[in-house]
Amino acid sequence: MVQEKKFMKKVYSFSAFARDFLIFHKNIPAIIASLIHRKISKPFESKIMLTVTAVNGCKYCAWFHSKEAVNAGLNQDEVRRMLSRQLDIQIGDEESNALNFAVHYAETDQKPDRELVANLYDVYGVKAADDIFLKLRMIYFGNLCGNTFEGFLSRLKGSKPEKSFWLSELIIFLIISPLYGLLALLMKNEKGPAPAI
């Protein structure tokens, strides 16, 4: 008997997508404000984005945020090592706490330990910690949208996501296709290999 292949990345259920979609849109003013009045540096933000993406494995976010990270001053080797979850690159003490928290945040599906949350606020203060949380929510949402987009395409090729329902995937796929379809097209048309994830 041939065993069916599974798509192993985390994908959204419809209820989780709807919740995070509403939270994301509710936070658009805060997202815009965080881009204008930065509480954390652009390289630090890029490291947070890459760290969460490394846990969730979204190839579209890996491609996009790798480019953003290089533009922010990280080199290709730093990006590659971040995406392979090697947090030993040039990370200062001021960043290590947040990046380890980012791993925990992604691994616990946005349900971090309260003590670690309190520690994050103690280390960074309210404004910077709020900004870090905003970035974490943004990238987690982006990662799972990308994985759901990829998962639905994978289902069509015979490798369906675990613990997922085709109708939920289809609805989410239709909602996010304009953005992730464009990213897929840009990735396909770019010369050179995509970042490994």
How many helices? 8
Q: Strand order, biggest sheet?
A: 1-2
Number of strands: 2
Question: Which radius of gyration do the C-alpha atoms yield?
Answer: 17 Å
Q: Which structural class fits the helix and strand makeup?
A: mainly alpha
The named CATH superfamily: AhpD-like
* Overall pLDDT score: 92
The CATH architecture category equals Up-down Bundle
What's the helical proportion of residues?
A: over 70%
Instruction: Identify low-pLDDT runs.
Output: none
Shape: globular
What's the helix-strand series? EHHHHHHHEH
Total domains, how many?
A: 1
Give the amount of beta strand, in percent: under 5%
State the end-to-end CA separation.
Answer: 31 Å
Helices, strands, pairings?
Blueprint: E1 6-7, H1 14-26, H2 28-36, H3 42-56, H4 59-71, H5 76-83, H6 93-107, H7 114-156, E2 160-161, H8 166-189
Parallel strand pairs: 1-2
Task: Give a short summary of the structure.
The chain has about 200 residues and is mostly helical. The chain has helices at about 15-25, 30-35, 40-55, 60-70, 75-85, 95-105, 115-155, 165-190; strands at about 5, 160.
Give a description of the structure.
With 197 residues, this protein is mainly α. It has 8 helices and 2 strands; from the N terminus they run E-H-H-H-H-H-H-H-E-H. The chain has a two-stranded parallel sheet. Helix 1 crosses helix 7, helix 3 packs antiparallel against helix 4 (59-71) and helix 3 (42-56) packs parallel to helix 6. The two termini are 31 Å apart.
